[in-house]
Structures are given as C-alpha cells and as structure tokens.
Amino acid sequence: FGQMTKQGGKLVFAPGRDRSHAMLEDVSPDARVLRGLNAAGLESGKKLYVELIGVLENGILKASEFNMARAEGRCQLPGGKEAVWAAGGNEPGWNMQAGGERVLIQRLGKTDVRLPHGEFKREGEVVSYAAAKDGNTLALRFEHKLCLDTMADAAFGWTAVVTLNGQAYKGCAWQR
Fold this sequence. Notes:
Layout: E1 2-7, E2 10-15, E3 22-26, H1 32-39, E4 48-57, E5 60-70, E6 85-89, E7 94-99, E8 102-107, E9 113-116, E10 121-123, E11 126-133, E12 136-143, E13 147-149, E14 154-156, E15 158-164, E16 167-175
Parallel strand pairs: 3-5
Antiparallel strand pairs: 1-2, 1-4, 2-3, 4-5, 5-14, 6-7, 6-16, 7-8, 8-9, 10-11, 11-12, 12-15, 13-14, 15-16
C-alpha cells in the first residue's frame, strides 16, 4: 500500500509510511494492474493511493495483482484481523465490512444489519459467502475483475453483488 504517481513517463511507487520509492513493473495477467491504475486516473496525472500485491526486487516493484486505487486517499494500513473484505456501491448507497466475528451491511436510510462471519468460499475467480440470522439472509458474490467507481475516482480488483433479504446491491469489493 502506498502512493503511485507518473513522473516523466515512469511509474513511481512510494510505500505508505516510508520515504523510499520504487519503479513499477506490471507482471499481472492481461496488464490488470495498469488497467486498474489508469482507470483510477494515473494516466491523466492523478496521484493515487494504491493497494497492490507484488515483489520488490532491486528497486522495482513487480506488481502481480491489483486490489484498489483511488485518487483521494492517504496511506493507511490495510485491514487487520478484524477486516477481511470490504465492498460498496452507489444508487442506493451501501457498504459492507466483513471480518472478525461479523459481516456488517450499512445502507443509506436503513437500519444496519449484522450477521455472523464465517469462511468465504473461493472457486477460481469467484468468492462467495452466505449467512442467515434473526430473519435476515445474506449472499455475497465477488468476481475478480476490474470494477470502477466513477463517483469516487476509484478502481477496485473485484466486482460485488450483495444480496440482503432478496434485495441485490451491486458495486465493487476489495480485500483488506
């Protein structure tokens, strides 16, 4: 996690809470990392907060996976043991946090829903989860493909469909 900028045609990554920097090399399938960065505004000159997965070798960050990038944001520590997944969407506005012992769903103008957290099932490029408690039913489906939130100048590594009590909410997801 850190800041990403484009300087003189080179991609420069500065890790959060660190004064060092590295050049970026995208080694992801189908240039997934660069596509995500450019979708969030890197190509147009925006400074981004990013979360990538990669290996640092001789001053080069070889990024193999894209988790998220957004134009507005400062370096922050990715989620700890209490946060495993996050997701959100617009129209209507909603967000989801999963980790620890609960899954929390928040929707504008509606009561928060808390359900038990358990193991997420992963099959290839899809992650899913289902839970029920106190008359509420939840199904989560995250697909590993680029998701854009144009209202927030952000891109994420996963699309999300969160179905709560039969109502589907679509948006983006990222691993914490």
